[in-house]
Amino acid sequence: MTPQIVIFTGALFAMFSVIFGAFGAHALKKILSTDQLNSFEVGVKYQMYHAIVLFVVGFNFSSIPSTIYWCFTLGIILFSFSIYGLVLSDSKGKKLRFLGPITPLGGLLLVAGWFFLLLSVF
């Protein structure tokens, strides 16, 4: 995996994290309950945290194991985006329950990304 792809992906996720965070803070504040808004913010935070990690990894490694890239990338998509979908669908009274089991799978991929990052250092 090239550093440029990793940096691009991290920057893309970071940009959307800012957009989703602003959307949540302004547009959704009147629509969502406090619990729903908190859940939405968890998705935004984890997306940003891992976007920053991709960014840092891209700048600090000449060659990034693709396992790390894909664990973080898919982890962000499955974890954060399933939370967004769950919260938004719940706010409309039609909760997409099939997304519920996807969130922990995304979390496992994020943990795996950290594990493989640890292995790559040693």
Automatic annotation (TrEMBL):
The lineage of its organism: Bacteria, Pseudomonadati, Bacteroidota, Flavobacteriia, Flavobacteriales. It comes from Urechidicola vernalis. Belongs to the UPF0382 family. It is found in: Membrane. It comes from the Bacteria. The chain crosses the membrane at residues 6-28, 40-61, 67-86, 98-119. Keywords: Membrane, Transmembrane, Transmembrane helix. It is a multi-pass membrane protein. This is DUF423 domain-containing protein. Pfam families: DUF423 (PF04241).
